[in-house]
Amino acid sequence: MINTREEWGTRLGFMLAAAGSAIGLGNIWRFPFVAGEGGGAAFVLIYLGFVLLIGLPLMIGEIAIGRKGRANAMDSYRAIRPEQPWHVTGLLGIVSNFMILCFYSVVAGWTLYYFILAATGRLLTSTKSNYGEAFGSFISHPFAPVIWQSLLMIIVSLIVAKGVKQGIERWNNILMPVLFVLLLVLAVRSLTLSGGGEGLAFFLRPDFSSVTSTVVLAALGQAFFSLSLATGLYVTYGSYCRTNTHIPANAGGIVFLDVLVAVIAGLIIFPAVFHFGIDPGRGPDLVFVTFPAIFSNMPLGGLFAALFFFCVFLAALTSAISLLEVVVAYVHERWALRRVTATWLAGLVVLLVGLPCALSFGPWADATLLDRTVFDWFDFLAASVLLPFAGLLLALFLGWGWKPEQVKAEVEQEGVRFQVFPLWRMLIRYVIPVALVIIFLQSIGLI
């Protein structure tokens, strides 16, 4: 077990860094779309219920594991239960993080490219009908996506190589407030568009007639995946926490920030798409195709396009930082490498392994395996198979492997009170494992 390691400088720094991982591209486009399709505010209420009953308890447990183990995502489990193979749970999280970063860095590179286009005024020079063609041409280019993926990974590696305080915490203390301010500016602009009220009503007016079992399952999956649970992130970040850290309060703050960004994103997207009469369910196209068309028809569209894509880039960047840190912490400690060496080594391997993902949309895109590109397979195996299974193992470890009373003892250090412990124990032992089995079955298409 590693006894001497970096610690977060402030509670806010820890919360912003952890929230930076949870706040990603899915908050910008997926949450508003799923919420709108699921009955607006009705979906939001169901989602919030699952976040509080499923997401928050798991997050509290993960942070406690990290602080107790004081090591990377795998060795923290080994430090707590050295005689049992629970460390496989942490290893699954590390592998999932690695695979996710391989394809997530590709999309994050797209956001960097689009921000540069918007900032230089070149994004809105095409006619509206050409935005889809321009996006398709870019992602299918033989080497352009690789260049932007490489630039993204260089930026991420430079930050992570600086360490916890001087790198991750310092930059999240800058990037996250900037992200929130810019999102609020964009929300105000979107809400002032004519027809914005209709879009706002679509997002926030409860329509319980639209709630079906499919909607409930979507809310359950969104609550689990959007918080980056079972990825080893909170174990890794928890290992940098001091013994006086109020784990439940910090976990609650992280959840609040994640949900807040998702809601603000809805306030940006729905008034805008309703104003221009656009289908809000276009997924990634909504970001890279539809929104450039929207900005081209908006006063000061160039300015707001630059702000929007800078927000999207920041969301992608903060998530990528956390994804890489989980891998770097493992490499750094398991092989006793210097952090700088471990960072650049991990970043290079991610880039090399991720090359097929970046090239999945090129001239050879038809070369698929079982109707999936390499990009799709990385996404499916990491997010739909490994993460739900790791989440189930995490819940079983907290409820039966480590024992809830021992988790309580770890949380209640230096006068901290775990006031909701009886509810937490019931949820983590009986409710959450069932929910994660459902998420796993849904993810692999069995329900």
TrEMBL record:
CDD domains: SLC6sbd_Tyt1-Like. The keyword Cell inner membrane does not apply. It is found in: Membrane. It is a multi-pass membrane protein. Keywords: Membrane, Transmembrane, Transmembrane helix, Transport. The chain crosses the membrane at residues 12-29, 41-65, 86-119, 139-161, 173-191, 211-235, 255-278, 298-331, 343-365, 377-398, 427-446. The keyword Glycoprotein does not apply. It comes from the Bacteria. This is NSS family neurotransmitter:Na+ symporter. It comes from Caldalkalibacillus uzonensis.
